Protein backbone atom coordinates (compact mmCIF):
# COMPACT_ATOMS: atom_id res chain seq x y z
CA UNK A 1 0.00 0.00 0.00
CA UNK A 2 2.82 2.34 0.83
CA UNK A 3 4.56 1.54 -2.48
CA UNK A 4 1.46 2.54 -4.46
CA UNK A 5 1.08 5.87 -2.65
CA UNK A 6 4.33 7.28 -4.05
CA UNK A 7 3.28 7.39 -7.78
CA UNK A 8 -0.08 8.91 -6.79
CA UNK A 9 1.74 11.58 -4.81
CA UNK A 10 4.00 12.37 -7.78
CA UNK A 11 1.00 12.61 -10.14
CA UNK A 12 -0.76 15.02 -7.77
CA UNK A 13 2.44 17.04 -7.49
CA UNK A 14 2.73 17.36 -11.30
CA UNK A 15 -0.92 18.36 -11.67
CA UNK A 16 -0.66 20.93 -8.91
CA UNK A 17 2.53 22.29 -10.51
CA UNK A 18 0.77 22.75 -13.85
CA UNK A 19 -2.14 24.48 -12.16
CA UNK A 20 0.25 26.76 -10.30
CA UNK A 21 2.10 27.54 -13.54
CA UNK A 22 -1.15 28.54 -15.23
CA UNK A 23 -2.22 30.71 -12.31
CA UNK A 24 1.08 32.37 -11.67
CA UNK A 25 1.30 36.05 -12.47
CA UNK A 26 3.50 37.24 -15.37
CA UNK A 27 6.02 40.04 -15.27
CA UNK A 28 5.27 43.07 -17.47
CA UNK A 29 7.65 45.56 -15.92
CA UNK A 30 9.64 46.48 -19.08
CA UNK A 31 9.45 46.16 -22.87
CA UNK A 32 11.67 43.09 -22.64
CA UNK A 33 9.47 41.25 -20.11
CA UNK A 34 6.24 42.07 -21.99
CA UNK A 35 7.49 40.89 -25.37
CA UNK A 36 9.13 37.84 -23.78
CA UNK A 37 5.84 36.97 -22.07
CA UNK A 38 3.95 37.11 -25.34
CA UNK A 39 6.46 35.01 -27.26
CA UNK A 40 7.31 32.50 -24.52
CA UNK A 41 3.75 31.42 -23.73
CA UNK A 42 2.90 30.77 -27.38
CA UNK A 43 5.75 28.38 -28.12
CA UNK A 44 4.79 24.78 -29.07
CA UNK A 45 6.39 23.39 -25.92
CA UNK A 46 4.80 26.04 -23.65
CA UNK A 47 1.49 26.94 -25.28
CA UNK A 48 -0.56 29.06 -22.84
CA UNK A 49 -2.53 31.72 -24.76
CA UNK A 50 -4.21 32.93 -21.58
CA UNK A 51 -0.91 34.07 -20.10
CA UNK A 52 0.31 35.47 -23.46
CA UNK A 53 -2.85 37.59 -23.72
CA UNK A 54 -1.88 39.45 -20.53
CA UNK A 55 0.69 41.35 -22.61
CA UNK A 56 -2.06 43.11 -24.60
CA UNK A 57 -3.83 46.35 -23.70
CA UNK A 58 -7.18 44.96 -24.81
CA UNK A 59 -9.78 46.58 -22.63
CA UNK A 60 -13.33 45.88 -23.73
CA UNK A 61 -12.47 42.59 -25.42
CA UNK A 62 -13.53 39.20 -24.16
CA UNK A 63 -10.93 36.78 -22.85
CA UNK A 64 -11.27 34.53 -25.89
CA UNK A 65 -10.82 37.51 -28.22
CA UNK A 66 -7.74 38.62 -26.29
CA UNK A 67 -6.22 35.16 -26.67
CA UNK A 68 -7.13 35.06 -30.35
CA UNK A 69 -5.40 38.37 -31.02
CA UNK A 70 -2.30 37.32 -29.10
CA UNK A 71 -2.15 34.20 -31.30
CA UNK A 72 -2.79 36.24 -34.47
CA UNK A 73 0.08 38.58 -33.60
CA UNK A 74 2.66 35.78 -33.25
CA UNK A 75 1.25 34.12 -36.38
CA UNK A 76 1.82 37.37 -38.23
CA UNK A 77 5.38 37.67 -36.91
CA UNK A 78 6.26 34.07 -37.80
CA UNK A 79 4.47 34.18 -41.14
CA UNK A 80 6.17 37.42 -42.11
CA UNK A 81 9.56 36.21 -40.93
CA UNK A 82 9.92 39.05 -38.40
CA UNK A 83 12.52 37.88 -35.88
CA UNK A 84 12.55 39.69 -32.53
CA UNK A 85 16.11 40.08 -31.33
CA UNK A 86 15.59 39.99 -27.58
CA UNK A 87 19.19 41.05 -27.06
CA UNK A 88 18.39 44.61 -28.15
CA UNK A 89 14.99 44.95 -26.45
CA UNK A 90 15.38 47.35 -23.49
CA UNK A 91 14.87 46.07 -19.95
CA UNK A 92 14.57 49.56 -18.53
CA UNK A 93 11.25 50.06 -16.75
CA UNK A 94 11.29 53.76 -17.73
CA UNK A 95 12.45 53.40 -21.32
CA UNK A 96 11.67 56.64 -23.20
CA UNK A 97 11.42 57.07 -26.97
CA UNK A 98 12.89 60.52 -27.50
CA UNK A 99 11.76 60.61 -31.14
CA UNK A 100 8.08 60.05 -30.34
CA UNK A 101 8.42 61.65 -26.89
CA UNK A 102 6.60 58.73 -25.31
CA UNK A 103 7.30 55.77 -23.10
CA UNK A 104 7.13 53.24 -25.90
CA UNK A 105 9.24 50.78 -27.85
CA UNK A 106 8.65 49.97 -31.54
CA UNK A 107 9.57 46.39 -32.43
CA UNK A 108 10.18 46.86 -36.19
CA UNK A 109 10.89 50.01 -38.17
CA UNK A 110 8.91 48.76 -41.17
CA UNK A 111 5.87 48.21 -38.92
CA UNK A 112 5.64 51.26 -36.64
CA UNK A 113 2.10 50.24 -35.62
CA UNK A 114 3.49 47.31 -33.63
CA UNK A 115 4.83 48.67 -30.35
CA UNK A 116 4.60 48.33 -26.57
CA UNK A 117 3.95 51.28 -24.29
CA UNK A 118 3.91 52.00 -20.60
CA UNK A 119 0.44 51.88 -19.05
CA UNK A 120 0.62 52.74 -15.36
CA UNK A 121 3.41 50.59 -13.94
CA UNK A 122 3.15 47.96 -16.72
CA UNK A 123 4.29 47.70 -20.32
CA UNK A 124 1.67 46.38 -22.74
CA UNK A 125 1.13 46.08 -26.46
CA UNK A 126 -0.67 49.35 -27.24
CA UNK A 127 -4.40 49.56 -27.92
CA UNK A 128 -3.47 50.77 -31.42
CA UNK A 129 -1.45 47.60 -32.00
CA UNK A 130 -4.25 45.40 -30.68
CA UNK A 131 -6.74 47.12 -33.01
CA UNK A 132 -4.43 46.61 -36.02
CA UNK A 133 -3.73 42.90 -35.38
CA UNK A 134 -6.70 41.55 -37.43
CA UNK A 135 -5.74 43.70 -40.44
CA UNK A 136 -2.10 42.65 -40.25
CA UNK A 137 -3.11 39.02 -39.87
CA UNK A 138 -5.44 39.17 -42.88
CA UNK A 139 -2.68 40.80 -44.93
CA UNK A 140 -0.33 37.86 -44.45
CA UNK A 141 -3.08 35.22 -44.68
CA UNK A 142 -5.41 36.40 -47.49
CA UNK A 143 -8.08 34.46 -49.40
CA UNK A 144 -9.26 32.66 -46.28
CA UNK A 145 -5.92 30.92 -45.71
CA UNK A 146 -6.12 31.75 -41.99
CA UNK A 147 -8.74 29.00 -41.67
CA UNK A 148 -6.03 26.43 -42.38
CA UNK A 149 -4.14 27.56 -39.27
CA UNK A 150 -6.89 26.10 -37.06
CA UNK A 151 -6.21 22.66 -38.56
CA UNK A 152 -2.54 22.65 -37.56
CA UNK A 153 -1.23 21.46 -34.17
CA UNK A 154 -0.23 24.22 -31.75
CA UNK A 155 1.81 22.08 -29.37
CA UNK A 156 4.55 19.56 -29.99
CA UNK A 157 7.41 18.18 -27.98
CA UNK A 158 9.53 16.45 -30.60
CA UNK A 159 11.44 18.80 -32.90
CA UNK A 160 14.47 18.32 -35.14
CA UNK A 161 16.63 21.30 -36.09
CA UNK A 162 13.94 23.60 -34.77
CA UNK A 163 11.07 22.12 -36.85
CA UNK A 164 8.35 19.62 -36.03
CA UNK A 165 7.71 16.57 -38.18
CA UNK A 166 4.49 17.99 -39.64
CA UNK A 167 6.40 21.13 -40.73
CA UNK A 168 8.92 19.02 -42.65
CA UNK A 169 6.02 17.18 -44.27
CA UNK A 170 4.40 20.52 -45.11
CA UNK A 171 7.61 21.83 -46.75
CA UNK A 172 7.87 18.64 -48.80
CA UNK A 173 4.25 18.93 -49.92
CA UNK A 174 4.77 22.56 -50.91
CA UNK A 175 7.80 21.59 -52.98
CA UNK A 176 5.85 18.82 -54.74
CA UNK A 177 2.87 21.10 -55.35
CA UNK A 178 5.13 23.84 -56.70
CA UNK A 179 6.95 21.46 -59.05
CA UNK A 180 3.71 19.98 -60.43
CA UNK A 181 2.13 23.41 -60.77
CA UNK A 182 5.18 24.75 -62.61
CA UNK A 183 5.09 21.89 -65.13
CA UNK A 184 1.35 22.31 -65.59
CA UNK A 185 1.51 26.08 -66.07
CA UNK A 186 4.48 25.76 -68.42
CA UNK A 187 2.53 23.28 -70.53
CA UNK A 188 -0.58 25.48 -70.56
CA UNK A 189 1.28 28.67 -71.47
CA UNK A 190 3.66 27.16 -74.02
CA UNK A 191 1.27 24.76 -75.73
CA UNK A 192 -2.40 25.50 -75.11
CA UNK A 193 -2.20 29.31 -75.20
CA UNK A 194 0.37 29.29 -78.00
CA UNK A 195 -1.77 27.02 -80.17
CA UNK A 196 -4.76 29.27 -79.64
CA UNK A 197 -2.75 32.35 -80.63
CA UNK A 198 -1.30 30.58 -83.69
CA UNK A 199 -4.78 29.49 -84.77
CA UNK A 200 -5.82 33.14 -84.36
CA UNK A 201 -3.23 34.03 -86.99
CA UNK A 202 -0.57 35.42 -84.65
CA UNK A 203 2.21 32.89 -85.06
CA UNK A 204 4.97 35.51 -84.61
CA UNK A 205 3.39 36.60 -81.30
CA UNK A 206 3.54 33.04 -80.00
CA UNK A 207 7.11 32.41 -81.17
CA UNK A 208 8.59 35.73 -80.11
CA UNK A 209 6.72 36.41 -76.86
CA UNK A 210 4.86 33.39 -75.46
CA UNK A 211 7.62 30.80 -75.92
CA UNK A 212 10.43 32.85 -74.28
CA UNK A 213 8.25 33.98 -71.36
CA UNK A 214 6.50 30.67 -70.63
CA UNK A 215 9.04 29.40 -68.10
CA UNK A 216 9.60 32.63 -66.10
CA UNK A 217 5.83 33.26 -66.10
CA UNK A 218 5.07 29.83 -64.60
CA UNK A 219 7.88 30.22 -62.05
CA UNK A 220 6.57 33.68 -61.14
CA UNK A 221 3.09 32.29 -60.43
CA UNK A 222 4.51 29.39 -58.41
CA UNK A 223 6.76 31.71 -56.38
CA UNK A 224 3.83 34.00 -55.59
CA UNK A 225 1.71 31.02 -54.52
CA UNK A 226 4.52 29.71 -52.28
CA UNK A 227 4.84 33.19 -50.78
CA UNK A 228 1.21 32.90 -49.66
CA UNK A 229 1.41 29.29 -48.45
CA UNK A 230 4.71 29.21 -46.55
CA UNK A 231 3.40 31.34 -43.63
CA UNK A 232 0.73 28.70 -42.96
CA UNK A 233 3.44 26.28 -41.81
CA UNK A 234 4.22 28.62 -38.91
CA UNK A 235 7.93 28.09 -39.23
CA UNK A 236 10.19 29.78 -36.72
CA UNK A 237 10.71 33.44 -37.64
CA UNK A 238 14.36 32.94 -38.60
CA UNK A 239 13.37 30.13 -41.02
CA UNK A 240 10.48 32.09 -42.51
CA UNK A 241 12.65 35.15 -42.91
CA UNK A 242 15.12 33.54 -45.30
CA UNK A 243 12.58 31.39 -47.15
CA UNK A 244 10.31 34.36 -47.79
CA UNK A 245 13.32 36.51 -48.67
CA UNK A 246 14.37 34.01 -51.33
CA UNK A 247 10.83 33.89 -52.75
CA UNK A 248 10.58 37.69 -52.93
CA UNK A 249 13.93 37.92 -54.69
CA UNK A 250 12.82 35.20 -57.11
CA UNK A 251 9.65 37.15 -57.92
CA UNK A 252 11.72 40.27 -58.70
CA UNK A 253 14.05 38.27 -60.93
CA UNK A 254 11.21 36.57 -62.83
CA UNK A 255 9.41 39.87 -63.39
CA UNK A 256 12.66 41.35 -64.69
CA UNK A 257 13.12 38.41 -67.09
CA UNK A 258 9.57 38.76 -68.40
CA UNK A 259 9.97 42.50 -68.95
CA UNK A 260 13.32 41.86 -70.63
CA UNK A 261 11.61 39.50 -73.09
CA UNK A 262 8.84 42.03 -73.61
CA UNK A 263 11.45 44.59 -74.64
CA UNK A 264 12.72 42.13 -77.28
CA UNK A 265 9.17 41.68 -78.50
CA UNK A 266 8.56 45.44 -78.50
CA UNK A 267 11.79 45.95 -80.44
CA UNK A 268 10.61 43.59 -83.19
CA UNK A 269 7.39 45.52 -83.66
CA UNK A 270 9.16 48.88 -83.51
CA UNK A 271 11.58 47.67 -86.19
CA UNK A 272 8.66 46.61 -88.38
CA UNK A 273 7.08 50.03 -87.93
CA UNK A 274 10.40 51.73 -88.72
CA UNK A 275 10.77 49.74 -91.93
CA UNK A 276 7.49 51.25 -93.17
CA UNK A 277 8.80 54.83 -92.84
CA UNK A 278 10.61 56.58 -95.68
CA UNK A 279 13.78 57.38 -93.76
CA UNK A 280 16.14 54.81 -92.33
CA UNK A 281 17.28 56.75 -89.26
CA UNK A 282 14.42 55.07 -87.37
CA UNK A 283 16.00 51.72 -88.19
CA UNK A 284 19.15 52.93 -86.42
CA UNK A 285 17.19 54.37 -83.49
CA UNK A 286 15.23 51.20 -82.65
CA UNK A 287 18.25 49.09 -81.54
CA UNK A 288 19.52 51.97 -79.40
CA UNK A 289 16.10 52.42 -77.81
CA UNK A 290 15.82 48.67 -77.26
CA UNK A 291 19.19 48.53 -75.50
CA UNK A 292 18.24 51.52 -73.35
CA UNK A 293 14.97 49.90 -72.25
CA UNK A 294 16.82 46.70 -71.36
CA UNK A 295 19.26 48.68 -69.22
CA UNK A 296 16.35 50.35 -67.41
CA UNK A 297 14.69 46.96 -66.84
CA UNK A 298 17.90 45.54 -65.34
CA UNK A 299 18.40 48.62 -63.17
CA UNK A 300 14.78 48.40 -62.00
CA UNK A 301 15.24 44.71 -61.16
CA UNK A 302 18.41 45.42 -59.18
CA UNK A 303 16.71 48.25 -57.27
CA UNK A 304 13.75 45.96 -56.49
CA UNK A 305 16.06 43.24 -55.16
CA UNK A 306 17.91 45.80 -53.04
CA UNK A 307 14.56 46.94 -51.68
CA UNK A 308 13.69 43.35 -50.73
CA UNK A 309 17.08 43.06 -48.99
CA UNK A 310 16.10 46.21 -47.04
CA UNK A 311 18.89 48.36 -48.38
CA UNK A 312 18.26 52.07 -48.09
CA UNK A 313 17.56 52.55 -51.78
CA UNK A 314 16.90 56.28 -51.36
CA UNK A 315 20.28 56.85 -49.74
CA UNK A 316 21.90 54.65 -52.37
CA UNK A 317 20.32 56.63 -55.21
CA UNK A 318 21.32 59.88 -53.50
CA UNK A 319 24.91 58.66 -53.26
CA UNK A 320 24.81 57.62 -56.89
CA UNK A 321 23.45 61.05 -57.81
CA UNK A 322 26.29 62.82 -55.99
CA UNK A 323 28.81 60.49 -57.56
CA UNK A 324 27.06 60.96 -60.89
CA UNK A 325 27.44 64.72 -60.58
CA UNK A 326 31.17 64.38 -60.01
CA UNK A 327 31.37 61.93 -62.88
CA UNK A 328 29.39 64.31 -65.10
CA UNK A 329 31.85 67.12 -64.42
CA UNK A 330 34.69 64.82 -65.44
CA UNK A 331 32.85 63.55 -68.51
CA UNK A 332 31.35 66.69 -69.98
CA UNK A 333 32.31 65.79 -73.53
CA UNK A 334 30.65 62.38 -73.26
CA UNK A 335 27.44 63.92 -71.92
CA UNK A 336 27.58 66.57 -74.64
CA UNK A 337 27.85 63.83 -77.25
CA UNK A 338 24.90 62.02 -75.65
CA UNK A 339 22.71 65.11 -75.87
CA UNK A 340 23.98 65.64 -79.40
CA UNK A 341 22.73 62.15 -80.23
CA UNK A 342 19.32 63.00 -78.81
CA UNK A 343 19.26 66.18 -80.90
CA UNK A 344 20.13 64.26 -84.08
CA UNK A 345 17.44 61.66 -83.43
CA UNK A 346 14.83 64.35 -82.75
CA UNK A 347 15.70 66.82 -85.53
CA UNK A 348 16.71 64.12 -88.07
CA UNK A 349 19.03 66.36 -90.15
CA UNK A 350 20.06 63.28 -92.15
CA UNK A 351 19.32 59.60 -92.57
CA UNK A 352 21.61 56.60 -92.67
CA UNK A 353 22.81 56.40 -96.29
CA UNK A 354 22.58 60.16 -96.96
CA UNK A 355 25.43 62.03 -98.57
CA UNK A 356 26.40 64.92 -96.30
CA UNK A 357 29.06 67.63 -96.31
CA UNK A 358 30.13 69.43 -93.16
CA UNK A 359 33.37 71.06 -92.05
CA UNK A 360 35.52 69.61 -94.88
CA UNK A 361 33.92 66.16 -94.40
CA UNK A 362 32.25 64.77 -97.49
CA UNK A 363 30.76 61.27 -97.45
CA UNK A 364 27.88 58.89 -96.77
CA UNK A 365 26.41 58.33 -93.29
CA UNK A 366 26.83 54.67 -92.26
CA UNK A 367 25.83 54.63 -88.59
CA UNK A 368 24.50 57.00 -85.93
CA UNK A 369 25.48 55.95 -82.40
CA UNK A 370 24.98 57.43 -78.95
CA UNK A 371 28.44 58.96 -78.97
CA UNK A 372 29.46 59.49 -82.59
CA UNK A 373 28.35 59.26 -86.20
CA UNK A 374 30.30 57.16 -88.71
CA UNK A 375 30.75 58.63 -92.20
CA UNK A 376 32.24 56.78 -95.15
CA UNK A 377 34.13 59.32 -97.27
CA UNK A 378 34.45 59.14 -101.04
CA UNK A 379 38.09 58.13 -100.50
CA UNK A 380 36.60 54.99 -98.87
CA UNK A 381 37.98 56.00 -95.47
CA UNK A 382 35.86 56.15 -92.32
CA UNK A 383 35.46 59.30 -90.23
CA UNK A 384 33.95 59.28 -86.74
CA UNK A 385 32.38 62.64 -85.82
CA UNK A 386 31.39 63.23 -82.16
CA UNK A 387 27.68 63.93 -82.06
CA UNK A 388 28.20 66.90 -79.76
CA UNK A 389 30.24 68.64 -82.47
CA UNK A 390 28.07 67.38 -85.30
CA UNK A 391 24.97 68.91 -83.68
CA UNK A 392 26.67 72.34 -83.80
CA UNK A 393 27.89 72.05 -87.40
CA UNK A 394 26.21 73.37 -90.51
CA UNK A 395 25.24 70.19 -92.35
CA UNK A 396 24.57 70.19 -96.07
CA UNK A 397 22.47 67.09 -96.67
CA UNK A 398 23.02 66.24 -100.29
CA UNK A 399 21.09 63.02 -99.85
CA UNK A 400 17.92 64.95 -98.93
CA UNK A 401 17.72 66.51 -102.38
CA UNK A 402 14.53 65.65 -104.22
CA UNK A 403 16.20 66.73 -107.49
CA UNK A 404 19.84 66.88 -108.50
CA UNK A 405 20.90 69.84 -110.58
CA UNK A 406 22.88 69.56 -113.80
CA UNK A 407 24.10 72.85 -115.25
CA UNK A 408 26.48 73.31 -118.17
CA UNK A 409 27.11 75.48 -121.23
CA UNK A 410 27.05 73.89 -124.68
CA UNK A 411 29.29 75.74 -127.14
CA UNK A 412 28.57 75.56 -130.89
CA UNK A 413 30.58 77.04 -133.72
CA UNK A 414 29.92 80.51 -135.11
CA UNK A 415 29.18 78.91 -138.47
CA UNK A 416 25.89 77.59 -137.06
CA UNK A 417 22.87 79.30 -138.63
CA UNK A 418 20.02 80.78 -136.55
CA UNK A 419 17.65 78.14 -137.92
CA UNK A 420 19.97 75.36 -136.78
CA UNK A 421 20.22 76.95 -133.33
CA UNK A 422 16.44 77.09 -133.01
CA UNK A 423 16.10 73.45 -134.05
CA UNK A 424 18.84 72.39 -131.67
CA UNK A 425 17.39 74.23 -128.64
CA UNK A 426 13.86 72.97 -129.38
CA UNK A 427 15.09 69.37 -129.62
CA UNK A 428 16.91 69.73 -126.30
CA UNK A 429 13.73 70.93 -124.60
CA UNK A 430 11.72 68.07 -126.10
CA UNK A 431 14.31 65.62 -124.77
CA UNK A 432 13.89 67.00 -121.23
CA UNK A 433 10.10 66.85 -121.49
CA UNK A 434 10.08 63.23 -122.65
CA UNK A 435 12.52 61.80 -120.11
CA UNK A 436 11.04 60.23 -116.95
CA UNK A 437 13.91 61.23 -114.65
CA UNK A 438 13.82 65.02 -115.23
CA UNK A 439 11.95 67.76 -113.44
CA UNK A 440 9.49 69.09 -115.99
CA UNK A 441 8.53 72.19 -114.05
CA UNK A 442 12.00 73.66 -113.68
CA UNK A 443 14.51 73.69 -116.54
CA UNK A 444 16.12 76.42 -118.64
CA UNK A 445 17.60 75.87 -122.12
CA UNK A 446 18.42 79.05 -124.06
CA UNK A 447 21.02 80.59 -126.33
CA UNK A 448 22.78 82.53 -123.65
CA UNK A 449 25.94 84.32 -124.81
CA UNK A 450 28.55 84.88 -127.52
CA UNK A 451 31.77 83.49 -126.23
CA UNK A 452 35.31 84.06 -127.39
CA UNK A 453 35.26 80.96 -129.53
CA UNK A 454 31.66 79.68 -129.48
CA UNK A 455 28.01 80.53 -129.25
CA UNK A 456 27.03 79.31 -125.78
CA UNK A 457 23.72 77.63 -124.91
CA UNK A 458 22.72 77.45 -121.24
CA UNK A 459 21.64 73.88 -120.38
CA UNK A 460 20.12 73.90 -116.84
CA UNK A 461 18.03 70.88 -115.75
CA UNK A 462 17.25 68.73 -112.69
CA UNK A 463 17.26 64.95 -112.32
CA UNK A 464 15.05 62.79 -110.14
CA UNK A 465 17.86 60.61 -108.81
CA UNK A 466 17.85 58.91 -105.38
CA UNK A 467 21.65 58.67 -105.18
CA UNK A 468 24.83 59.87 -106.79
CA UNK A 469 25.25 56.74 -108.92
CA UNK A 470 21.86 57.24 -110.53
CA UNK A 471 22.69 60.92 -111.07
CA UNK A 472 25.89 60.05 -112.95
CA UNK A 473 24.02 57.57 -115.12
CA UNK A 474 21.37 60.17 -115.98
CA UNK A 475 24.05 62.70 -116.87
CA UNK A 476 25.70 60.25 -119.22
CA UNK A 477 22.43 59.44 -120.96
CA UNK A 478 21.58 63.14 -121.40
CA UNK A 479 25.03 64.05 -122.72
CA UNK A 480 24.93 61.22 -125.28
CA UNK A 481 21.45 62.33 -126.37
CA UNK A 482 22.70 65.91 -126.76
CA UNK A 483 25.40 64.65 -129.11
CA UNK A 484 22.81 62.71 -131.15
CA UNK A 485 20.59 65.79 -131.42
CA UNK A 486 23.58 67.87 -132.58
CA UNK A 487 24.36 65.27 -135.21
CA UNK A 488 20.74 65.27 -136.48
CA UNK A 489 20.47 69.05 -136.67
CA UNK A 490 23.93 69.54 -138.23
CA UNK A 491 25.27 71.52 -135.29
CA UNK A 492 28.98 71.33 -134.57
CA UNK A 493 30.45 71.75 -131.14
CA UNK A 494 33.07 74.44 -130.82
CA UNK A 495 36.38 74.14 -129.16
CA UNK A 496 38.74 76.92 -128.08
CA UNK A 497 40.67 78.29 -131.17
CA UNK A 498 42.57 81.46 -132.08
CA UNK A 499 43.13 82.91 -135.56
CA UNK A 500 46.28 85.01 -135.95
CA UNK A 501 46.20 87.63 -138.76
CA UNK A 502 49.58 89.02 -139.88
CA UNK A 503 49.49 92.34 -141.84
CA UNK A 504 52.26 94.38 -143.53
CA UNK A 505 55.00 91.73 -143.63
CA UNK A 506 57.59 92.41 -146.46
CA UNK A 507 57.66 89.77 -149.24
CA UNK A 508 61.41 89.51 -149.09
CA UNK A 509 61.09 88.05 -145.66
CA UNK A 510 60.52 84.54 -146.86
CA UNK A 511 61.01 83.13 -143.44
CA UNK A 512 61.43 84.32 -139.96
CA UNK A 513 62.74 82.84 -136.82
CA UNK A 514 60.86 83.04 -133.59
CA UNK A 515 63.02 84.19 -130.79
CA UNK A 516 62.59 83.46 -127.18
CA UNK A 517 61.53 86.52 -125.17
CA UNK A 518 64.13 88.03 -122.97
Give the gist of this structure.
With 518 residues, the chain is of the alpha+beta class. The chain has four domains: 20-149, no CATH class; 165-328; 332-399, SH3 type barrels (Roll); 401-489, Alpha-Beta Plaits. It contains 15 helices and 13 strands.
Task: Give your account of this protein's structure.
This protein is α+β, with helices and mostly antiparallel strands and 518 residues long. The protein has four domains: 20-149, no CATH class; 165-328; 332-399, SH3 type barrels (Roll); 401-489, Alpha-Beta Plaits, CATH 3.30.70. It is 54% helix and 14% strand. The protein has 15 helices and 13 strands. The strands form four sheets. Strands 9-8-7-6-10 form a five-stranded antiparallel sheet. Strands 3-4-5 form a three-stranded antiparallel sheet. Helix 4 (63-80) crosses helix 9 (237-275) and helix 8 runs antiparallel to helix 9. The termini are far apart. Mean pLDDT is 79; it is low at 1-24 and 511-518.
Amino acid sequence: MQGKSIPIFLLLLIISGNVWAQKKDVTLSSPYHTIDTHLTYLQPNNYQPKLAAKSLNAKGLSQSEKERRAIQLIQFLDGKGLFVDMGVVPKDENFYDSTARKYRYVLFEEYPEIYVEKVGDQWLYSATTVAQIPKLHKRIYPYGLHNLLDLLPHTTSERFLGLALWQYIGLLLLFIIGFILHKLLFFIVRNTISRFIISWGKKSLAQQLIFPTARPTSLLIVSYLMLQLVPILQLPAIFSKYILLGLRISICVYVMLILYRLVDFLGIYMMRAAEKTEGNLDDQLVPLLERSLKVFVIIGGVVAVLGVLQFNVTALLTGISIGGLAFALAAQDTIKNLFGSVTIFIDKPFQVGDWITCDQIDGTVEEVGFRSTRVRTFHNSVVYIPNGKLADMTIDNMGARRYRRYSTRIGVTYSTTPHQLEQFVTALKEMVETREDTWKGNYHIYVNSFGASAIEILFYIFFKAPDWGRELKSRQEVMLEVMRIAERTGVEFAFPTQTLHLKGIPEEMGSFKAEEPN
